[in-house]
Known about the structure:
This protein is of the alpha+beta class.
Amino acid sequence: MLTLVFEKFEYKWQVVAVYQKDKITQGDIFHVSTEVITSDTKALRVWKGLQLKLPSSALSNLYKVFLSELPRFEVTLCSVISFYFSGVDKPYLAYGRSDVLKVKQIAKMVDRERHRMKAFIRFRRQKDDLYFAVVEPDFNVLPLIRKHFSDRYADQRWLIYDLKRSYGIYYDLREVQEVHLEFSEGFQEDKFVLEHAEEELYNVLWQQYFHHVNIKERKNLKLHIQHVPKRYWKHLVEKQNPPRGMINVDF
Length: 251
């Protein structure tokens, strides 16, 4: 993406659309297509230039737009970064421009998803004491939550896997690494073949806890869905079918 910005300035391009190389697109007789090859040198020059002109919060917003993966986000980034290099004082605050405002709005959406992932991720302990969780966030937020989980769960091995994007982040008690897994056909999250023997017990306890703290007379489904959207329910233990009977545990 940053290489594209560099070459936009170098060749004075007007970027109207950006496509992945492996995506088949319909030709446009009014525009000329060209291939951009990633260059670390060019990308670093653009990023260093942005660091001199923008505060860390504005740089973070650009990164969040990149992670949003929304349609035409590349065009938005090209447009707004060109404006940031125009010499205007504090260009990141020029919300009268549609592209600057859009960057702020998209960054806020990604931030909201990042916050929800921190709250809604549910780990399941495996036989080898690996804590495993699967997610399907609207945006690519794993890079934004890796530090939170590595700091909070520094004493245990864990893996958070994004099924939608087919990659995950794995913590091995030393560092966080990006990993890619191959699941067997018909993989189901609720049927882990390597799940720890005690995991089912804890799932039942968790479900019973939510069952008992719920006050039917104060039920407000609309408000509940506003804070916990239904698209997250499939990965929440407390939203699965409750146990038929109750169990007693001695502490």
